[in-house]
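Final report, section 2: Outcomes. Of the targets proposed, Thioesterase family protein is the one most frequently requested by collaborating groups, and we therefore present its record in full.
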Amino acid sequence: MTQLEPNRAKTRFFATSDMVADSEGLIHSGFVFSAASYAAMAAVNETFSVVIGAKIHFFAPTKLNEAIEFDARSHFNESKKREVRVTGTTNDIKVFEGTFQVVILEDHIFKIYKTNLQKQAAQRRNEEKRKEEAKQNA
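The predicted structure is given below as tokens.
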């Protein structure tokens, strides 16, 4: 992280040998995407937030030992759903551009998921109990 302020973050990604995808020294694009996603999340800077969508464009491949400077700007900061525009440059040349959709949750996503599963299980048990009682009363 090179800069963090409300609704904006700047980060730096450095391509290492562990990220190389081929004999030409090109970096797997998943690493670049993850770095851009990190910049988007930093721009939102909320405890319980999750990327729910992204539309991205790669304009050039990333090579071993290259650095990408990401600049992320969050929009709609009064909403639970934010749009974050991220630009990545190498030597002042745009190599990445994307828009990330980030939703801000009330609690940790796994806690919300667990609570929903528990509610669904209770509903199934109640339904099964009603069916069993209906059979016995028939």
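The CA atoms of residues 52 and 101 lie 6 Å apart.
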